[in-house]
Amino acid sequence: MKTIFSFVCFFFAVSLQAQTVVADSTFVNLKEYSQDFVLDMKYATTDNFLKAKVYECEACYLRFKTIKALVEANNDFIRKGYRIKIFDCYRPLDVQKKMWKIVPDANYVANPARGSIHNRGGAVDITLVDETGTALDMGTSFDFFGPESGHDFKEFAKPILKNRKLLKKIMLRNGFESFDSEWWHYNLEGAKKDKLSNFNWQCN
What we know:
Elements: H1 2-19, E1 27-29, E2 38-39, E3 61-63, H2 64-79, E4 83-88, H3 93-102, E5 123-129, H4 158-173, E6 176-179, E7 182-188
Parallel strand pairs: 2-4
Antiparallel strand pairs: 1-3, 4-5, 5-7, 6-7
């Protein structure tokens, strides 16, 4: 009887554990999986090209599969003495509409009618910081809209080009795709197939 009881307890324990497995498509908070990132969520402030705060509070939510790839990429950077600094993660569709209302220009903001990879939980806007927390020189600021922000722009000093190359190399190695005109923007491979979402996180 004791053996049967032990087996039943074990079975229910395994079943409970299975139920808590996170699906790749689930939206999760990055801070619950790693404390090794620097967050500077620009759209939770007025320090952005919109000059408007469009998030209620700072948080980095992404689909779980994106989080896993991002943590692995950050681990690679950490081994080299750097860390990822994050400017933007998942963006609810209602926020995309708010941004479009402020700047209705597809050169700067994705039209919410189509949405962006940010609205699908598969995109991040990032840079790198060193062990002192100082951002590496990438040639332009985040959300600078000009040819200088493109990956093909080569008229920078070698240290800047080296920094961009390092960021791109490790992100691509960990399953991300670069965005030609924005050195800071990376999409998880295949993320464009995910559905647009309007999930919004709770502010403490």
